[in-house]
């Protein structure tokens, strides 16, 4: 137990040294570390609870996604049956299905026609045999089209992917440092923005679907008459975004959609000095817009965002360049937001904030200071106690524990782990565990000495017996840490990471470094008695 | 101030280190070398006490319940600091009560300027929580610094609770499986009883002290579990070793010897953990206050007691060591992998 070959001793020391050195970048300012080679840049990341910032968990509305898909199926059914000139009644969506009733004589023709609507599901789930619609004959001429489960899953997956892209674009527009945007589970998106103190604005930006449409205003009926029920079938009544809310009668047909926008910028109107948003269409959008404005000179059109009319200017002359500008009652902020939303594009489904945690920079700084102080005081008390209890061996223990803590920081940096306040607590507790491994060894040595062994044999037996116990007891704690890591999020996970890493370094130190130190002392002193 | 204390302590360490290296320091023995306490006989008192305490804890859990934090109950938590230096709690209460947001708790924390506001979960889903926090922010206005804002919607809170409980179960089961492999089933069962006892008592403590029960409490519970098991495993390890060595020793005596020979270690280790926790409790700030308070109770009070007075003596009832006479007496103890 006390004999190490030269190479092994060197290997142990080198390993410990390299792991400790990994912690070095944390002691230099971030800007300086950035100039180092990439392999040396790994460092601890402070959690949002320590550096301040916002954590938002967004949920995609699964019901909306389903409803959209069902509406689309219903429209497809209508179109196909019309194409095939099959008469139908009662085309409705009910629950997860679309139902339509046809005459018995048309049933087979209708079924054949509708089966064409069911598409094979591609992508990850694409086994080739699965289709997105289950079409069944419910009897009595009733045809039922149900969304299959895999189709729904696939649809959600695509929706989440698209949403993440849009959310990324919108968050990046805020100009924040290193935001994190991740998918979580089946229907959620995690957004972490370090340094953001007030997420109200961010939530406003993310809370808008930003479905933008350019549509004609229906001038055939005045809005108040439409409100009383005289609404033409191909138009709908929309409210203005600005308050007081003004009603508009707007045609359902979309001239150009937001997807055909190329760019949007804010600026100021040269005459009125009001904030405006100028935009540019892509080539297809420009063509459509040019054609529409040529046909409707003198008539008003509406710029609609999420079913609210932003502005309804009159077309004075055909706009052929594919460029335009929106002026309305904007503030600089609202103009800016609109430009961001137009540039980033529309979300495929609305997002709701289901969890929000924001920590201001003041509290974060306080937490760091308190955590540090607690760590110092705790360590010092433990160090003093160990010295008083074990004297020379207490010095050995303290050296081992100090290296242990340095190695924890090294490993955490190597993993680019996030340090949270519970994480600091985890490190303090690890000091407790690390000390325990030394206590186990030393108590065992004391016991073996009492049992009548000589110094070297007692030390040897003490290590041998204690190490088995250390391994067993640490594995149980490690299992608890692993479970915490698996179930935890954010700060709790930070705690689990430091605890888990602490256990690994503790076992390593106990098995190698502590032994090496004691072995070195034994070789040097050849002690007849153990001062323990 | 704190710097002076730290520097002072640093100097103390340096001096002590030098003194230790030269061996001028008398060795401190917290526990005398050869103790022979009859721990197992105490089981006739400790088992009924533990049973009674567990019943009390369970009763408390069902009558007083746990003070669920927003993680599990949903709702809003705001930590604000008055820019003026002192927060007028009464005025804040009037303002916030005027918003009609249901139950609003206002509590001073730390200094006179720091206030914790809890708003109960609003009916009407996730969007309603967002509206509530916006209303509070608008009502309190710019006179406060918003140091922490947490909003947990009803769906997330339910999931967090379910997930937390699942984690606790998962941890217990996986640790047991490990113990079952390393020891024998009696040991695993004994450890499980000790475990459940720890958790029940700690939950009773949480109920009576009404500390926030949130995600960090689950973390605290799991750590208590880990520590307590750590302790139990150390004693079990020794029991296993003794079982191999002394085939004829009666079980109560064997258990006593095992506990006594590890007693010094148990006490020293718990003392150091207590020191570390004490530092966290005193200086770590209120954000981890409930976490450390729970840990202090669980690790220091319950954990130590459990491994000595419950986990070890219960092995008698579980029939450990009953069939040792059947084992070959000549077998060399070191080479046997199982007791």
TrEMBL record, chain A:
Transmembrane stretches, start-end: 373-390, 466-488, 494-518
Keyword entries, A-Z: Cell inner membrane, Cell membrane, Membrane, Protein transport, Translocation, Transmembrane, Transmembrane helix, Transport
Localization, UniProt: Cell membrane
Stored Gene3D superfamilies: 3.30.1360.200, 3.30.70.3400, Multidrug efflux transporter AcrB transmembrane domain
Pfam family, one: SecDF_P1_head
Keyword DNA damage carried by entry: no
Topology in the lipid bilayer: Multi-pass membrane protein
Residue span(s) of domain SecDF P1 head subdomain: 237-349
Any one GO molecular function term: protein-transporting ATPase activity
Chief site of localization: membrane
GO biological process: intracellular protein transmembrane transport; protein targeting; protein transport by the Sec complex
One cellular component (GO) term of this entry: plasma membrane
InterPro entries according to UniProt: Acrflvin-R, SecD, SecD/SecF_arch_bac, SecD/SecF_CS, SecD_1st, SecD_SecF_C, SecD_SecF_C_bact, SecDF_P1_head
Domain Protein export membrane protein SecD/SecF C-terminal as annotated: residue spans: 353-517
Domain Protein translocase subunit SecDF P1, chain residue ranges per copy: 160-218
Family: Belongs to the SecD/SecF family. SecD subfamily.
Function: Part of the Sec protein translocase complex. Interacts with the SecYEG preprotein conducting channel. SecDF uses the proton motive force (PMF) to complete protein translocation after the ATP-dependent function of SecA.
Assembly information from the UniProt record: Forms a complex with SecF. Part of the essential Sec protein translocation apparatus which comprises SecA, SecYEG and auxiliary proteins SecDF-YajC and YidC.
Listed HAMAP family: SecD_B
Name of this protein: Protein translocase subunit SecD
Species assigned in the record: Bradyrhizobium rifense
UniProtKB/TrEMBL annotation, chain B:
Membrane keyword on record: yes
Transmembrane among keywords: yes
Cellular compartment(s): Cell membrane
One of the GO biological process terms: protein targeting
Signal peptide: none
Molecular function in Gene Ontology: protein-transporting ATPase activity
GO cellular component, one term: plasma membrane
Domain Protein export membrane protein SecD/SecF C-terminal: 134-319
Keywords: Cell membrane, Membrane, Protein transport, Translocation, Transmembrane, Transmembrane helix, Transport
Membrane topology per record: Multi-pass membrane protein
Pfam families to which the protein is assigned, alphabetical: Sec_GG (PF07549), SecD_SecF_C (PF02355)
Stretches that traverse the bilayer: 6-25, 45-66, 160-181, 188-209, 215-239, 267-288, 294-318
InterPro entries: SecD/SecF_arch_bac (IPR022813), SecD/SecF_bac (IPR022645), SecD/SecF_CS (IPR022646), SecD_SecF_C (IPR048634), SecD_SecF_C_bact (IPR055344), SecF_bac (IPR005665)
Domain of life: Bacteria
Family that this chain belongs to: Belongs to the SecD/SecF family. SecF subfamily.
Record note on quaternary structure: Forms a complex with SecD. Part of the essential Sec protein translocation apparatus which comprises SecA, SecYEG and auxiliary proteins SecDF-YajC and YidC.
Protein function: Part of the Sec protein translocase complex. Interacts with the SecYEG preprotein conducting channel. SecDF uses the proton motive force (PMF) to complete protein translocation after the ATP-dependent function of SecA.
Record protein name field: Protein-export membrane protein SecF
Encoding gene per record: secF
């Amino acid at each position: 137990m006390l004999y190490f070959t030269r190479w092994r001793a060197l290997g142990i020391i080198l390993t410990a040294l390299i792991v400790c050195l990994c912690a070095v970048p944390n002691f230099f300012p971030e800007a300086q570390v950035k100039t180092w080679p990439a392999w040396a840049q790994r460092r601890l990341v402070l959690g949002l609870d320590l550096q301040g910032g916002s954590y938002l968990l967004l949920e995609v509305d699964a019901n909306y996604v389903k409803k959209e898909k069902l509406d689309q199926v219903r429209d497809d059914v209508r179109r196909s049956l019309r194409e095939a000139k099959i008469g139908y009644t009662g085309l409705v969506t009910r629950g997860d299905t679309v139902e339509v009733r046809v005459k018995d004589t048309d049933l087979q023709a209708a079924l054949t026609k509708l089966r064409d609507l069911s598409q094979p599901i591609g992508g990850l789930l694409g086994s080739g045999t699965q289709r997105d619609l289950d079409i069944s004959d419910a009897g009595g001429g009733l045809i039922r089209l149900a969304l299959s489960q895999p189709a729904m899953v696939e649809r959600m997956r695509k929706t989440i992917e698209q949403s993440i892209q849009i959310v990324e674009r919108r968050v990046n527009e805020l100009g924040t440092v290193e935001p994190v945007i991740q998918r979580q589970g089946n229907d959620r998106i995690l957004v972490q923005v370090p340094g953001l103190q007030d997420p109200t604005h961010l939530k406003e930006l993310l809370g808008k679907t930003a479905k933008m449409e350019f549509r004609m205003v229906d001038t055939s009926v005045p809005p108040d008459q439409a409100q009383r029920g005289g609404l033409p079938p191909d138009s709908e009544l929309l409210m203005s975004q600005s308050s007081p809310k003004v009603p508009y009668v707007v045609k359902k047909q979309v001239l150009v959609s937001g997807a055909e926008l190329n760019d949007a910028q804010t600026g100021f109107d040269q005459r009125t000095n009001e904030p405006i948003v100028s935009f540019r269409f892509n080539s297809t959008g420009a063509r459509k817009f040019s054609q529409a404005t040529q046909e409707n000179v003198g008539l008003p059109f509406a710029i609609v965002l999420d079913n609210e009319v932003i502005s309804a200017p009159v077309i004075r002359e055909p706009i052929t360049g594919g460029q335009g500008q929106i002026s309305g009652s904007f503030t600089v902020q609202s103009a800016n937001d609109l430009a961001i939303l137009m540039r980033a594009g529309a979300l495929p489904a609305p997002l709701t904030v289901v969890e929000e945690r924001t920590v201001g920079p003041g509290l974060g700084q306080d937490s760091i200071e308190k955590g540090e102080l607690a760590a110092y005081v705790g360590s010092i008390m433990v160090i003093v106690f160990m010295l008083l209890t074990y004297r020379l061996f207490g010095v050995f223990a303290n050296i081992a524990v100090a290296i242990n803590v340095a190695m924890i920081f090294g490993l955490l940096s190597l993993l680019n782990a996030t340090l949270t306040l519970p994480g600091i607590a985890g490190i303090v507790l690890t000091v407790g565990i690390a000390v325990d491994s030394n206590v186990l060894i030393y108590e065992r040595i004391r016991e073996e000495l009492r049992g009548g062994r000589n110094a070297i044999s007692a030390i040897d037996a003490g290590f041998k017996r204690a190490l088995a116990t250390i391994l067993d007891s640490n594995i149980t704690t490690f299992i608890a840490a692993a479970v915490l890591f698996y179930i935890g999020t954010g700060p709790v996970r930070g705690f689990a990471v430091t605890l888990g890493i602490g256990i690994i370094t503790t076992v390593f130190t106990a098995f190698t470094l502590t032994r090496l130190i004691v072995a070195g002392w034994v070789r040097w002193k050849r002690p007849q008695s153990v001062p323990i | 101030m704190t710097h002076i204390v730290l520097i002072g302590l640093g100097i103390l360490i340096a001096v002590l280190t030098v003194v230790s290296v030269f061996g001028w320091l008398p060795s401190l023995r917290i526990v005398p070398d050869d103790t022979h306490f009859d721990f197992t006989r105490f089981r006739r008192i400790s088992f009924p006490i533990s049973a009674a305490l567990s019943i009390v804890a369970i009763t408390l859990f069902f009558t007083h319940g746990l003070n669920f934090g927003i993680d599990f109950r949903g709702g809003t938590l705001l930590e604000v600091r008055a820019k003026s230096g002192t927060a007028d709690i009464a005025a804040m209460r009037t303002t916030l009560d005027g918003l009609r947001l249901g139950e609003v708790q206002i509590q001073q924390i730390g200094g006179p300027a720091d206030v914790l506001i809890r708003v109960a979960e609003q009916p009407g889903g996730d969007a309603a929580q967002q509206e509530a926090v916006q209303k509070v922010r608008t009502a309190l206005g710019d006179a406060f610094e918003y140091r922490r804002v947490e909003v947990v919607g009803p769906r997330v809170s339910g999931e967090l609770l379910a997930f937390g409980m699942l984690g606790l179960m998962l941890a217990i089961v996986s640790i047991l499986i490990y113990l079952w492999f390393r020891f024998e089933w009696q040991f695993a069962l004994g450890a499980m009883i000790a475990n459940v006892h720890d958790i029940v008592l700690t939950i009773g403590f949480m109920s009576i002290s009404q500390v926030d029960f949130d995600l960090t409490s689950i973390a605290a519970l799991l750590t208590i579990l880990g520590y307590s098991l750590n302790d139990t495993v150390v004693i079990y390890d020794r029991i296993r070793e003794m079982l191999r060595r002394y085939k004829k020793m009666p079980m109560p005596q064997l258990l006593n010897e095992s506990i006594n020979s590890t007693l010094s270690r148990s006490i020293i280790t718990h003392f150091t953990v207590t020191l570390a926790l004490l530092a966290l409790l005193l200086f770590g700030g209120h954000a981890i206050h409930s976490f450390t308070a729970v840990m202090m109770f669980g690790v220091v009070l319950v954990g130590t007691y459990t491994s000595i007075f419950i986990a070890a003596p219960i092995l008698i009832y579980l029939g450990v060591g009953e069939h040792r006479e059947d084992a070959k007496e000549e077998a060399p103890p070191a080479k046997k992998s199982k007791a």
